[in-house]
Amino acid sequence: MSPKHPEALGGPGGYSVVYKGAESKEDHWIWQAWSVDETFNSHWAELMAIAEALNMAILRLSLKPTTRTAEIYLFTDSLRSLDFLMKKSSEAAKQSRRTTFFEHAGRPVRSFIARISRELHNLGVKLTLSHIPGHKHGVTGHIIADRTAHNVMVDRMEALQAPSKDQAPDSAVPNSLPSDLSLPKRRYIDDKVATRSSQHNPICF
């Protein structure tokens, strides 16, 4: 079930993880969501949401045999969230491509995500943040734990953001991602998709 975004809060709502199930069919993607409580501080809750979602992604990557470097994509419509959650450290990036956090982030949460970042590095996983203007699904962000899901998610978001002209004015646009993103065949990231991705201001660590 999709986590709902409380409009009055102006906070995170939740993050989701999309990953390819190890025993699932070629065209079957599994979606899990982690929602935050609106009583929490917005910044702290958002940090916890991304920490838990990254943790789930790492668990899936650890259990899933892979023969190539995986990539995790985080999509969000909140520039404030990106500014608060992460900043690119040129020194750390040169050494281990790890992510650093602002000093005012809560110490326990910051330490937890620091461990996650180290685990990502140990797994050879690349983390990419992308700002998607107007991205409204009832969740603030999506973390994709498989690089082959990247263009699938971009296509899905574009379709939801630009409904067809013949669609009824009062027809509801889905506010959540289905747990099964069925496709005719699996597609891989290529130059065309990479160009499209750059239009969404990706930030790589």
UniProtKB/TrEMBL annotation:
Residues covered by region (Disordered): 162-184
Gene3D superfamilies assigned to the protein according to its UniProt record, in alphabetical order: Ribonuclease H-like superfamily/Ribonuclease H
Residues making up the signal peptide according to the UniProt record: none
Domain of life of the organism encoding this protein: Eukaryota
Entry's Gene Ontology molecular function annotations: nucleic acid binding
InterPro entries given in the database record: RNaseH-like_sf, RNaseH_sf
Protein name stated in the entry: 703a844b-1041-4189-9ec3-8a196d566704
Organism: Thermothielavioides terrestris
